[in-house]
Task: structure prediction
Amino acid sequence: MTGNKLCAVIIVAVLSSAAWTAVPATADGLPTLLATFGATPAVYRVRPRVVELDQAEGGELMLHWSSWTSTEATGSGTGESFVASAINRYRAVVHASDPRHGRFTVLELTRAEGGRTYHEKLVLGNSIVGPSWTEQGDGS
Result:
């Protein structure tokens, strides 16, 4: 294997394990949530006020957390998505669950936009730039 191919294999291996690397529990033993997309290193926080998203419409959530336990977290706030070069703002309710290795791995998002309600299930995964929230299902 040439030096360039070996380097590429090592980079892919590091990126694919980045979201699942075990992290120490926070001082109060609560799991953290991925708050940034594309940051190196990724930023995980307890009760983040802003969560960046990497699904098709991208954007971010500005949240207030009403509950945060060792098994789940619930919050609400507003979000922004980007469609056809326009910023769309919406009201959002989120539910984080399925903690693994000190991190929540599922983020369910319910958003009200344009007179409709949408439900999305995002899972912690890896993109080419590192850990990210990836949409699972049809987002209806």
